[in-house]
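User: I've been trying to design a sequence by hand for this structure and keep getting stuck. Would you show me what you'd pick, starting by listing the structure so we're on the same page?

Assistant: Good idea, let's start from the same input. This is the structure you sent:
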C-alpha cells in the first residue's frame, strides 16, 4: 500500500497544480475584461467541481486497491495460520499416539516384565546368598581341617573358590599323592602346600607363565615357610599347533595356539593330582585342553584330574574331547561356584 501511495503522489501533485492553474484562469480572464465575471465564477466552480470529482475518483481507486491488497494479505495470512495450526495438530496427534504407545509399553512392563524381573532378581539374590554361605562354610572347614595360620591368602575371584579348594584337599587326603601339579599359581598353591605338609609327604609344582605372578606366588610361599613343599615353576606360553574343530552348534573354530613351554615340565613324573586352572581364557578357545595330552604319560594310575571353571562352555567342551580321546577316563561333575569336573581312570 505504501508503494502505491509513493507511485500516485507525483501524479496527484501534478493534477492539483494543473487544477489550481485551471481554476485561476476564468477570474484572470474576467479581470482582463475578456470574460464576464458571472461566467468566470461559473467556470471556476465547474473546474473545482470537476477537480473534486477527479479527487474522489482517485481516492476511491486508492481505497479499492488498498482493500484488494489487504484482502490478499488476509488470505495469505489465513492460509499460513491454517497450515501452521494443521501442522501443530498433526504433531499433537502424533505425540498423543506416541504417548499412548509409551503408556501401553509401560503398562505391559508393569503387568508382565517387571514382576518377572523382580522374581528373577529375588531368585538371583537367594542363589547368591546360598553361594556366599557355602563358600563361607568351605573356607571355615578348610581352615579347621588344615589348621592354617590366621593370615591366609584369600580365595575366590581370580583365585580358586573355597569349595573347589575343599574338593582338592579332600582328594589329596584320600590319595596322599607324592606330586601335585597345578596349571596356574596363586593362593591355591599355598592351600595345597598346607594340605601336603599335613600329610607329611609330597610336593606341589605350580606352573606359571607370567613372571610377575610367579614372583608373587614365590613370595607367598616363602612367607608361609612352604619352600620345601611348593615350587613355582616359570613356563612361558609358546606356540603350538592349533586344531580346527566344529562346535556342538555347528560353528567352526580354531583352538588356542599357545601353551606352557613343555621343556620346563619334562621331569614331572608320578603325578597324583593335576589341577587344571590355566592358562587363562584369553589365550584362546579350549586353552586348557593341552594339559591332559601333555601330562597323560606322567600320571599315576590312580591320578585325579580336576578341571576348574566348567560353568564355561569352553571348559565343558574340552572335557568332552578328553573323554572321547581317552575312553578309559570317567568324569564326575562336582557342585562348585565356578563348576568343577573330576576325571579319573575307570576302576581306579
Amino acid at each position: 500500500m505504501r508503494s502505491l501511495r509513493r507511485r500516485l503522489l507525483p501524479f496527484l501533485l501534478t493534477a492539483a497544480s494543473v487544477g489550481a492553474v485551471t481554476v485561476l484562469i476564468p477570474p484572470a480572464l474576467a479581470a482582463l475584461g475578456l470574460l464576464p465575471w458571472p461566467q468566470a465564477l461559473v467556470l471556476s466552480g465547474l473546474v473545482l467541481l470537476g477537480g473534486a470529482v477527479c479527487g474522489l475518483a482517485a481516492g476511491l481507486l486508492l481505497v479499492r486497491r488498498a482493500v484488494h491488497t489487504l484482502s490478499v494479505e488476509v488470505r495469505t495470512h489465513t492460509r499460513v495460520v491454517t497450515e501452521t495450526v494443521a501442522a501443530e495438530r498433526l504433531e499433537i496427534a502424533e505425540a498423543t499416539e506416541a504417548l499412548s504407545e509409551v503408556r501401553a509399553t509401560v503398562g505391559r512392563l508393569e503387568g508382565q516384565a517387571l514382576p518377572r524381573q523382580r522374581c528373577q532378581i529375588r531368585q538371583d539374590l537367594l542363589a547368591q546368598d546360598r553361594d556366599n554361605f557355602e563358600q563361607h562354610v568351605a573356607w571355615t572347614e578348610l581352615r579347621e581341617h588344615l589348621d592354617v595360620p590366621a593370615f591366609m591368602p584369600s580365595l575366590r575371584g581370580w583365585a580358586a573358590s573355597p569349595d573347589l579348594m575343599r574338593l582338592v584337599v579332600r582328594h589329596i587326603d584320600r590319595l596322599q599323592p607324592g606330586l601335585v601339579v597345578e596349571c596356574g599359581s596363586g593362593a591355591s598353591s599355598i592351600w595345597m602346600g598346607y594340605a601336603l605338609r599335613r600329610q607329611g609327604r609330597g610336593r606341589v609344582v605350580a606352573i606359571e607363565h607370567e613372571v610377575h605372578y610367579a614372583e608373587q606366588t614365590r613370595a607367598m610361599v616363602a612367607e608361609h615357610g612352604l619352600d620345601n613343599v611348593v615350587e613355582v615353576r616359570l613356563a612361558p606360553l609358546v606356540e603350538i599347533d592349533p586344531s580346527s574343530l566344529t562346535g556342538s552348534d555347528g560353528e567352526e573354530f580354531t583352538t588356542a595356539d599357545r601353551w606352557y613351554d613343555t621343556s620346563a615340565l619334562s621331569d614331572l613324573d608320578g603325578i597324583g593330582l593335576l589341577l587344571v586352572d590355566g592358562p587363562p581364557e584369553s589365550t584362546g578357545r579350549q586353552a586348557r585342553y593341552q594339559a591332559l595330552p601333555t601330562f597323560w604319560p606322567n600320571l599315576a594310575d590312580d591320578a585325579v584330574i580336576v578341571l576348574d571353571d566348567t560353568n564355561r562352555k569352553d571348559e565343558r567342551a574340552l572335557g568332552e574331547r578328553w573323554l572321547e580321546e581317552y575312553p578309559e577316563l570317567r568324569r564326575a561333575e562336582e557342585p562348585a561356584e565356578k563348576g568343577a569336573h573330576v576325571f579319573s581312570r575307570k576302576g581306579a
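That's my pick for every position. To get oriented when you compare it with your attempt: Residues 1-146 form one domain. The helical segments are 2-31, 37-146, 162-175, 187-199, 211-223, 291-295, 313-325.
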